[in-house]
Hints:
Elements: H1 4-7, H2 10-33, H3 38-42, H4 53-72, H5 86-101, E1 115-118, E2 126-129, H6 130-155, H7 162-166
Antiparallel strand pairs: 1-2
Amino acid sequence: MxxxxxxxxxxxxxxxxxxxxxxxxxxxxxxxAKKIDADVFLQARLSPDMFPLLRQVQIxxxxxxxxxxxxxxxxxxxxxxxxxxxxxxxxxxxxxxxxINSLDEQQxxxxxxxxxxxxxxxxxxxxxxxxxxxxxxxxxxxxFHTTTAYAILRHNGVExxxxxxxxxx
Length: 169
């Protein structure tokens, strides 16, 4: 029997993290071909008050691993935000995919009703059932940051299209 919470999270994260790998490769190739310093793209943003591309990718990876871990009822892996290059971001995405791929569908049993606690013990603590966490919080946050990463690169001249964003499905 297929677990809805697993199939609605892990394969989605796998697809879109793969897409991020592809668009980052294209951005790095574009920078190299046009002799543009990679930092121009890594530090690019759509608005002065937004996070740059580098941080958008870090946050997308954080949501993928965090949502998956919480739903599987395992510890969320901690990553230091030390990435400064395309290679570093690719390594973070690969590490995130390896973690997600290590999770078993059975670990997601009953996760739709399991209480998820965000920022425990802080004034911003929030509790919600797993299904609401995934569908109303985790996936929208993840898609926001993956879409923003795509938009930053597209806005800065990297030749990307919807197929690149969608990845392999």
